[in-house]
Design a protein that fits this description.
By secondary structure, this protein is mostly beta strands. The chain is 6% helix and 38% strand. The strands form 2 sheets. A 5-stranded antiparallel beta sheet has the order 5-4-3-6-7.
């Protein structure tokens, strides 16, 4: 069966297309210029429209948890579930930290987006130490 994967829809398709190209994008408001994630129909801050902006993909671990019992048997454990402040803290995403042992992850740890193809449609955006 394998790990459950996201199902792209009309709103999220550009995000998944960018991830397949090895690029991280984020919704950025056309009016207030604030970034938010995940995408919503309108900016959650001012209710204006938004566009996809390219992210540097660099961030810092804001908080994390080491998961020892996965959501299903398809998840290899342990793994790190983290909130990462990206682009100097202009937006935050929930992700997995990879590329190091779970006990090496620290709050404030500098990380960078990395891309892990799951199939022809889905490439996951994960973060690894930089």
């Amino acid at each position: 069966m394998g790990r459950p994967l996201p199902v792209p829809d009309a709103m999220t398709a550009p995000y998944w297309e960018a991830a397949r190209r090895g690029q991280l994008v984020v919704p950025e408001c056309d009016a207030c210029a604030r970034r938010h994630f995940p995408p919503e129909a309108r900016c959650p801050y001012c209710r204006s429209t938004w566009h996809w902006a390219v992210s540097s993909g660099e961030g810092e671990v804001y908080t994390f948890s080491v998961v020892h019992r996965g959501a299903s048997p398809d998840f290899a454990v342990p793994y790190v579930l983290a909130d990462v402040d990206v682009d100097g803290g202009t937006w935050t995403t929930t992700t997995n930290i990879v590329g190091c042992e779970p006990d090496e992850v620290r709050i404030g740890m500098p990380v960078r987006a990395t891309f892990e193809a799951q199939n022809d449609e889905i490439t996951l955006v994960l973060f690894a130490p930089r």
